[in-house]
């Protein structure tokens, strides 16, 4: 979420510092932890360009919140600060610079949702700061805010977008319905040199075949019955910008030939006319179909495929990046709140249940569910029992979002329940024996799951955060 920036945690309480580091590690962010001495000393440990957010916790020096904010202001540039502890409220009469730095208060015990909200606000402040000083020109990968997630799959998509956004290369986005193909296309446009020109989407599957040519290229007056006036097409409307051909796999063969010609010759003719119009548009195409199969059965032109597939981007289905679901839920809730369409929260058991759902409708299905829950449980907290039946994959309810970072198994599983372990005649060091057994089982789970921590945690029926802690404790590595 914060890209290559890190979260600076200033906290004198060792236990609270440890808990914060565990949560931030789980969210995929990089923490810098330190006790407080002075902001000048801290700046020597964490450079300005390294820090994306500061969490200000308990300090033993007796400084007030205003003094801390002034110290940060004098040491760093404008940095978002989330406050933990009993510092009191932000005074509206303070310097506006200080008020903008303090993005909110994290109540104890710190909840997952509260920390995510603070990170989103920090990101927005950083983006606004970069825009004010012209920093958007460099457009780091993490600015693709609509593509929420820390999974490897989603990070790969954002990296590929970052590589191709500044070019005029034709992009083909493939993926299941609801994975966010149009979101990618819009991000590519708005982060390209063409951002000040139009972005024009066309759903090739939603327009009747006999009207598609007129929609794309326009028509002259009298070209066909009902054409009482000349009309510009989508290519003309998108001049200088980006034309997004959604569901290109549904385009009829005769139109595929015409699109291929436009791509080759950079010009087109209106229906019923003979004048050639030059075109300067960037083409981004998308489809949920398997174009290789369509080429094999003759329903998609191979030459057009190679023209479109200059830079392919594959969108992963939501079921393959379940670890992104909590972040996506938070982003969707933030959008509801910003649009004044209500609010909702999900407890940890509900989120765990949603992470186990196959999501055939992908992110679109998740967005619909969040909006439905906001209508049914306005400003409430959704538990497993509140979810529609098909989304209930957890039997045990848990009302604590973090559960003190301890393991809360969803079901009880006995390893080797039919076996009897014999106590040696000379006795046994039970703690050492159990520790060794635990290490062995964790390593087996990691090996069986190819090093995927989330899946290993599921096999062990413990939380991912708990497994990460135990791996760190025992020095275990992914296979």
Automatic annotation (TrEMBL):
Keyword DNA damage found: no
GO biological process: regulation of DNA-templated transcription
PROSITE patterns linked: SIGMA54_INTERACT_1, SIGMA54_INTERACT_2, SIGMA54_INTERACT_3, SIGMA54_INTERACT_4
SMART domains with a match to the protein in the record: AAA
Domain Sigma-54 factor interaction: 147-375
Highest taxon of source: Bacteria
Keyword annotations from UniProtKB, A to Z: ATP-binding, DNA-binding, Nucleotide-binding, Transcription, Transcription regulation
Keyword NADP listed: no
Signal peptide: none
GO molecular function, one term: ATP binding
Record protein name field: Sigma-54 factor, interaction region
Lineage of origin: Bacteria, Pseudomonadati, Pseudomonadota, Gammaproteobacteria, Cellvibrionales
